[in-house]
TrEMBL record:
Its EC number is 2.3.1.286. The active site is at residue 116. This is protein acetyllysine N-acetyltransferase. Residues 1-233 form the Deacetylase sirtuin-type domain. The keyword Transmembrane does not apply. One of its GO terms (molecular function) is histone deacetylase activity, NAD-dependent. It holds the Pfam family SIR2. Keywords: Metal-binding, NAD, Transferase, Zinc. The keyword Metal-binding applies. Zn(2+) binds at residues 124, 127, 141, 145. InterPro entries: DHS-like_NAD/FAD-binding_dom, NAD-dep_sirtuin_deacylases, Sirtuin, Sirtuin_cat_small_dom_sf, Ssirtuin_cat_dom. Coiled coil: none annotated.
Amino acid sequence: MTELNDLIQAAHKIVFLTGAGVSTASGIPDYRSKNGLYSAGKQPEYLLSHTCLVREPDVFYQYVTNNLYYPDAQPNVIHQKMAALVNQGKATIITQNIDGLHVKAGAQESKVVEFHGNLYHVYCQKCHQNVPYQEYLKDLHHQGCGGELRCDVVLYEEGIDQNNVEQSIQALQNADLIVIVGTSFVVYPFAGLIQYRNPKAKIVAVNREPISLPAGSLMIQGDAVQAFEQVDI
C-alpha cells in the first residue's frame, strides 16, 4: 500500500481515473458486485437507457430516484485526499461516478471531469431551465412549464460530451502518473481513455479485484480506503 504513496509523492502531474468503488465507503452501492445494481434479475441497461426515458418516462423516473440518489452521502478519505492533490495543482480527476462527491470533497471543479455527468444537475427537457434536484425527487414534471425533468447523466444509447472527452485526453497526455481506483475498467469509452496516455506515464491501479492493465502497470489489490489513508498530503 505504501507504494501508492511513494508514486504520488514522486509524480508531478497525476490523473485519477475513478469508478463506483471510490464511493462505496460513503454508503453508495456499486454497480457490478454481487449485490450491486447490475446483479441478477435487474435490468439497468434498459432502465437507464434513452429508450426507457422516452418510451416509459415514469418507469425511468422511478428507477433513478429510488436507486441512484444518495443526497446525504459524504466524501470519504479517497475523495478528500484526491481533492487535496487537485487543489495543490498536482492532479486531475476523471470519474465515471455521477454522485458529485469529488466536487463535494472540495476539489476544484474545473479539474474534475464528470465523464458520465452528475445526478444533481437536473434540467427540463421542454424549456431547458436548470432545476434543483430536490424538485426532481418530488415530481417528474417541471412546475414552471409542465415539461418532463431529467438528470444530466449519460444514459445507454447516448454519447459522451465531447468537451469531457477532450479534457480527459489532454490530462492523460500531460500526466506522468495515472492512478486507477475503484473500477472494473470494462466500460467504454471510459476504459479506452488509457490508450491516449503519455507513453512514459506510470500506471497503478487500486481495486478489490484485479483488472486488465497495460504491460508494466502496478496492480494493488485491496481496499482503496486503506491505501489512501497512507497517502501523505
